[in-house]
Amino acid sequence: MPLSLNKLNKMYTDADGSLNSHFAEIRSNILLDTGFHHPRYDRYGNNRSPMWRDKGNRSSVIRITKNHIQYITKYIRNSIQNRAPGGQILPRNRRELKDNKSAQLNSSVWEWHKEVSEFDQFLSDCIHSFVVSGELYAKVFWDPNQGPVIGTVIKEEFDEETGEVSIVEVPLREGRLVNEVIPAYNMLTDPDANCLREVKWHMIRKHLAREELEDRYKGDERKLEIIRKSGGQDYKWFNGVTGIYNDMKDSVQIRETYIKPNNDYPNGYFYISTDAGILEDGELPDGYPIFTSVFDESPSNPRGYSMIKQARPFQAEINRCAAAVITESIVLGHSTVIYQAGSKLSTSSIGNGLKGLQYSSAKPDVIPGRSGEQYIDYMLQQISEMYRICNVPEINQDKQKSASNNDAQAMLFRSMRDKLRFSLYAEKIEKFIIKIMGYSLDTLRMRLPDQVLIPVVGKDEGVNIPEFKNTTPQSYQISIKPRTDDFTSMMGKSLQLQQVMQYMGSQLSPDQMASLARELPFLDDTSAFNDLAIYKDQADSVILGLDRGEDPFFFSQSNHAYMIQRLTKRMNENDFPTLNPEIQIRYQERIDMHAQFEAQQNKEAQLATSGYIPTSGGLTKCDVYITKEDGKQERLVVPTDALEWLQDKLIQQGTNVERLQNLDPYGQAQVGQQVAQQMGPSQDPSNVIPMEGFL
To answer: Is residue 619 part of a domain?
Structure first.
């Protein structure tokens, strides 16, 4: 049953009241991270410089920020981002060609989506909110009004002045999947939930200009009336960039409420409302669009808190000590001269820039000025303890390690160790990314038209678009891979390439080695192996098309022996008998077609060996002895050109034979039958050079 406006307003009031102090802490964390957490006279003052604050009795105190929290949060963010920056899609079952092709197609679509949606920047913003605010909330939704124009649609437009309805053509856009990071202090959650899993709904509050909303709902008088009742108010709006509250005039507070799927709403439900009425509502079209993760949890609380919560007391002590050092250096910084009453002091120049002091009576005493050094040791202890509590190495220690050890292997292992330092939090981001990727791929499969998918996956994969459309989450899995070619990933790529060349290079054919290299996580997008693996990609597409009951294009210039091998292997897999009998017949017909072409090539190779044997050139004695008619033996003497001709023909004929010998007995029999049929019983094979062991 849909919720009423009174119920939505009560949900907002209860959640805002219970989370008010929590939101204040999040805003304070943001100010601490940026350094804007001391009161200021002006809104744009530099908070890092010493600042005097009037206490009302003409006395002042100094406030200064020695901001270490920003370094700590940046270090944690970098560690998490290096550990879990993005995902790759792998087949669920590597033996299943269908799963491999589904994973490959989904990977192509995902890489395209990452590029057009600036996913890397979105992920960076997510990790920033996760570390600084302690909570991460993201909204993923399909926006049909984004992307390039792909056509036009007819739409009715109402003219408020004349009251007439006109027919106009409006552009039809491709649509885009939008990723949006929601500030944690603007996300209201179910106050009755005891943990993150029990949260039943999320409510996002936003402030939009009244004119913008009226333009969005132009022509709908009921909604315009709601906007007029809700608009015209002034709000204080926190700006996390500047650390100040902005004045928003003539704006409307919008509340987006998302209810998780339950018995009443099997697909979930959403409301877009104000305090005066409901603008939009309905079932969620693509599933629940809110994704969340928290940095640290507390019992019986669905919200999270940041590492800044532990660092805050130490940062306050560091700032207090820094202020005390400055205060003492200002008040007692200059040296003091003590001399007896009645004594006379005078200075004079001795020369070369030297100054002398003349005095009469008792010798004066000089008390050196104070620089506040008695606070330094205590402040350094607080700094060290704060870094230990936050599990972050101090700045000087990190630089000393980098300078003292430049060995590549040591740097690699240290980089891997640093990535594991915050593995607990990186795993949370990994799970968050996997959920985002799964939701995004499901939505893109349903929303993207074929004319968009073809250039995304490539024209050569256009025939496999139905394979992408029919993909289920059971056919692939998502794992995490490094983000960029940093030192760790480049080192890993180099090691993997060396292993392939060292251990597998001499045992595999070029196309097999290319297929293996493309399966490696660091070499999967390397274009150097595309030419070597072209026949594999061709065979994959043909097999997938045959499995779907289609009749794929026949490539007459293909590697027919390899195609026979792949098709024969598919016919021997366990699930082949379960296919439609017509599909099984197509497989046999396809093998016969390739066998016919292979036999034709074999015949041409055999016929090419016949012809006139050249007898020119000098005579060459060979290490072969022949018996003459009189019974005597002597070494064979052959013209040099005849030996060269023989070598060329053996190379041509041998290459074809070796390719056939790689087939299994069934494939060899198929080609042999085609050869026999094509040569016929009257074909004279006397001119064919004999080769022992052929087929």
So the answer is: yes
